[in-house]
Amino acid sequence: MELLPRSPGEFGSARYWDRFFRQRGQRPFEWYGAFPELCPILHKYVRPRDKVLVVGCGNSELSEQMYDVGMCEDIVNIDISDAVIRQMQERSGSMRPKMSYLLMDMLQMDFPDAHFQVVLDKGTLDALLTDEEEATIAKVDQMFAEISRVLQVGGRYLCVSLAQAHVLKKAVEYFSQEGWVVRIHQMASSGDRQQFVLPVFVYVMTKFRKIPGTAPQILEIYPEEQDKPMRMESAEQLVAAVKDRQHYALLCSQISKTPCREQVSLDLCDKESGKPRYTLHVVDTPSVKPSRDNHFAIFIIPQGRETEWLFGTEEGRRQLAASAGFGRLLTVALHREQHYEGMGGIQAELSGKVMELAPPGLPARQQVPFLSVGGDIGVRTVRHCDSSPLSGEYVVEDVKGDGSCYFRRLIFLRNRNVVQSEARLLAPTPLQGQKKRRKDKKKPSPAEPPGAIDKSYLCCEHHKAMVAGLCLLGGPDALPGELAVLVVGLGGGSLPLFVHDYFSQARVAVVEIDPSMLEVATHWFGFSQGNRMQVHVSDGLDYVAKLAAEGTILQSIPAQYDAIMFDVDSKDLMVGMSCPPPAFVEKPFLQKVKSILKPEGVFVLNLVCRDAQLKESVLATLRDIFPLLYARRIEGEVNEILFCQPSPEGRRDPAELGARARVLEGALRQPGRPWDSSYVLADMLQAVHVL
């Protein structure tokens, strides 16, 4: 402890370093960066004939090791400590005659201009730039100016650093503004030999003549064990990239010592594009008693299934980890923009990286199993990509579910973990398959999904519940006759299509704000308009307000709709309610909704709200407007379906609702009309309760 300075400023004091090296004696002192890990980087930038200057050399063995392996011999070492220069002259003078040690201040060097091809700094900048005080910054500017002066054009300043934020920012900004090429290397870690939790970096600043005007900056980073640099757009982006790697190193250190109390999530990015390639979640299960074979496993989520409850939620992943029976399970989600070479390719790509996330107590050389559903990585085929001013970028993709079923999905990329719309694809009949093969004259790929939409199948549980809510309509026979239904929010169109197809006397009006979604629903989800199905491209707020105003002006016009359904997402991800947008549940607007609903009608609302206080406020507002309010939670999801009725006289108990649901389902299940056998209307209403 007596070797530590009394203040950070003493790191720049010759008196402090004289005392330090006298007390330490002949033992070499290395700040960080062992030679075996530095060597591959040094070989890139130091040539045997280069004249090399080492600033702040101390009694590090770096220069001696470079000399001894033949990397370079013409090396000049300088330091402000007379004690350490004498030590190093005695230690190395006779053994390495072409290398010299000089007592010199790097802030005022005696060398002529353009005297060196390489300036090497191992921890010296870190020691000098201990704070951002004006006096400290002035010294650093002087240091950089002297390094620039003694370097030839094309020369390299190599700085080994822990890359503290203020140190990295200063170095990058200074040299990039001078027109130098700035490149950051992350040193490969050295396992148990690593002295610091934080990774060590090497700044490589290559001197170019400064071009008048605004020349483009060249800023690059070499991630650990990568042979190609990644180009950065700005100094801020480069600093952020280094910071990400430091956070990752801290995370690995932390979870290698103690179990995770909460699930840890991180992205591994593609080396070429820098875009996320894998999303990892670390899930620890303390209840699993460790044995040799159940410490750690990797679970590859099949493509397209990352949005399912078991894989896409914390509770689902916790259940998956517990059932797998491993103390730590690392789930891996694959991104749609990336290409993967099967399970073997993924395993080869991830094997080294995932071991950095291994749990404490993992036996040495323990083989870690890679798991998946059915042993493969699933199938995902992107059918269509586009963007719209309202919804942003979106994709339509086909994915393989359990067994042989395929599903078509609409995903908004601003919220890529949420399926916006989904439809099951029909398998082709044998005759259709024969015709297709004769036409194509080639055997279809087993990974090629069918194209026709199964309109009888509702993929979304909340859509099933919303349709079941129509049991609240009608008289004693529970069979509503002619229906006027308003659906706000089209998506892929499966909800209004189902109502249209199975309620043969229903007239359905759909309001959709984004014309691009009408095109998507028509071209990719089998949606079509007709006499009983009309789409109005409009803001739902404006459309309802217009209908309400017309009813007020012309008192002779009765309320129009038997059922009004809201299934519209919010474009503002900062709000704790993703469905519907807040304006749709404000009291004045809900009063307009009530005014265009028949007295015996039902207003069905898909509510997705993670903010408990906001949710309670929404429910209170609904109770003020609608005297009768039912709720139906969707198991495993945040969705809650609310059934709102204008009159309290229509209240029905669960038994009556179940009976009406069975009657209605019997009427909908007509001969020759397909019906999903797993869809039981009565089951949808069992969990309904009055609020």
Automatic annotation (TrEMBL):
<dbReference type="Pfam" id="PF01564">
    <property type="entry name" value="Spermine_synth"/>
</dbReference>
<feature type="region of interest" description="Disordered">
    <location>
        <begin position="429"/>
        <end position="450"/>
    </location>
</feature>
<dbReference type="Pfam" id="PF13847">
    <property type="entry name" value="Methyltransf_31"/>
</dbReference>
<keyword id="KW-0489">Methyltransferase</keyword>
<dbReference type="GO" id="GO:0008168">
    <property type="term" value="F:methyltransferase activity"/>
</dbReference>
<feature type="domain" description="Methyltransferase">
    <location>
        <begin position="50"/>
        <end position="171"/>
    </location>
</feature>
<feature type="compositionally biased region" description="Basic residues">
    <location>
        <begin position="434"/>
        <end position="444"/>
    </location>
</feature>
<dbReference type="InterPro" id="IPR029063">
    <property type="entry name" value="SAM-dependent_MTases_sf"/>
</dbReference>
<keyword id="KW-0808">Transferase</keyword>
<dbReference type="InterPro" id="IPR051419">
    <property type="entry name" value="Lys/N-term_MeTrsfase_sf"/>
</dbReference>
<comment type="similarity">
    <text>Belongs to the methyltransferase superfamily.</text>
</comment>
<dbReference type="GO" id="GO:0032259">
    <property type="term" value="P:methylation"/>
</dbReference>
<dbReference type="GO" id="GO:0005737">
    <property type="term" value="C:cytoplasm"/>
</dbReference>
<dbReference type="InterPro" id="IPR025714">
    <property type="entry name" value="Methyltranfer_dom"/>
</dbReference>
<protein>
    <recommendedName>
        <fullName>eEF1A lysine and N-terminal methyltransferase</fullName>
    </recommendedName>
</protein>
<keyword id="KW-0511">Multifunctional enzyme</keyword>
